[in-house]
Amino acid sequence: MKKTTILFTIFSSLLLFTFTSCFNNVFYEILQDVSPEDPTVSGPINSISRFKAGDSELLVLAGNHPKDASQRGLRYKSIDNDYNDHGYWKTFPASSLPFDLHAYDYYGTQDHSGQQIIKVVADENNLYLVTAEYANNSDTGTSCPSKIHLWTAQFDYLNEELVLTGSGATDADKWTDICADTDYLPIYIYDSYCYSAFSVFCTNSTNPKHRYAYIRYGSSSAYAEKYMDTKIYKLNGSSEPTEVSATVYELSFDTSLTSNISSAVYYPKASSNTEGVVFFNTIASITNETSTKEPTRMYFAYEEDVMYSDAENSSTCVAAGADIGETVISMALNSDCIILGRGNLTATSSSSSNGGVEKLVLTNGIPSSTLGDFSDSNAQSQLLSTYFVTNLLSVDPEKAELDNTIYATLNFIGTGSSSSVSYNNIGLWAYYTERHNWNRE
């Protein structure tokens, strides 16, 4: 009897240990899972931009759902607290665009028509749509862009609707194609592959007065000789872009090239131009500017680490020293942390570790040298590491992570044949304070 009691006690202890181990690795993930919301903003999203229309602050982006017309084209949403919930994104009328949305005739001409909106950026007064026309390439047996356009217009926000302003007999006439006469956004074929030799980006400042939009013409590392030299242009609404002298923020251990410029922020302390803009050869850069306060620190991704101003109002940046494990391609600032989106843009297929999100805790604006955890949210259970987190945006950088509204966009590389990814997850995700979890938007 005594031996039986001892054996049972040992067995019970081992069983408890086993289930405790399983809880840490499995049941935690189950408890983090939530009922999925119906997707309302789908498709590959290359930007989430702030835009002021009239007296209202909006977020704008491009959706592209192949079957749901309500999710295709220019999408927008007010950042007012009344709309901090799922399902409030609106679609700008396709009939008010200066082009038909892209379509492919599978059964008739077997050809492309219309244009796809691939990016949306903004400055203080103007909205810009980067769009692509496509054509079949009989030499390679593939489809690729045949022409890139850059459309611009001005808007007001009336009765909770985005409406065009300016002169023109029709809404379509109120748009200007900046690339109509000059090809500012070149594409080319090299060795049977289609490449772009441009980038369009904006400062995306929380303060509308500090919003500027730019074109990088040429490179990055262009194969075509005619695009190897780089020029930077500032967008000026419907007027011709202005070439500007853009100096990349220099690191003592990095030879930065203007040919790689892909982002910019408003941070006069480190700027050499009259607008107070700093340029980077990374696609992920932010400041701690708010709608009412000037920026006192800037942050930008450097490979698998984050650089930051070593003191408030300093132009010198130092490395956080964090091992993020993959290239940082997006960042969202909160008062208590920076959320980092990862993605290996040189990958040819998805893997279990080349995407997802990480976090650096902030102390007086200084990021930790070690990764934080998401124990109070389900971020890593929803924004999985098999997906690239191509965009992140915190609506109010003055708020803490769990008190904020935060958006993220997911995409993946490859055909989607892997069981670890799904086309249904490509699109916009959101964290809302009242919902207290990440879910599809």
Based on Cα principal axes, name the global outline.
globular
Would you tell me the structural class of the helices and strands?
Answer: mainly beta
Let me know the number of strands: 32
Uncertain residue segments: 1-31
**Rg, Cα atoms, Å:** 23 Å
In order across it, which strands form the biggest sheet?
1-2-3-4
Q: Strand content of the residues, in percent?
A: 35-45%
- Tell me roughly what share of residues is in helical segments: under 10%
Largest sheet: 4 strands, antiparallel
Average of the residue pLDDT scores: 89
Q: Please, how many helices?
A: 2
Kindly, what is the distance between the CA atoms of the first and last residues, rounded to a whole number of angstroms? 61 Å
Describe the structure in your own words.
- The chain is mainly beta and about 450 residues long.
- It is about 10% helix and about 35% strand.
- A hairpin with a 2-residue loop joins strand 1 and strand 2.
Task: Please specify the SSE layout and strand pairing.
Layout: H1 2-32, E1 49-53, E2 56-63, E3 73-78, E4 90-91, E5 103-104, E6 112-113, E7 116-122, E8 127-137, E9 142-153, E10 155-158, E11 161-164, E12 176-177, E13 187-190, E14 193-196, E15 198-202, E16 213-217, E17 231-236, E18 239-244, E19 263-266, E20 277-280, E21 285-287, E22 298-302, E23 305-309, E24 317-319, E25 328-333, E26 337-342, E27 357-363, E28 366-367, H2 379-382, E29 388-394, E30 406-411, E31 427-432, E32 437-440
Antiparallel strand pairs: 1-2, 2-3, 3-4, 5-6, 7-8, 8-9, 9-12, 10-11, 13-14, 15-16, 16-17, 17-18, 19-20, 21-22, 22-23, 23-24, 25-26, 26-27, 27-28, 29-30, 30-31, 31-32
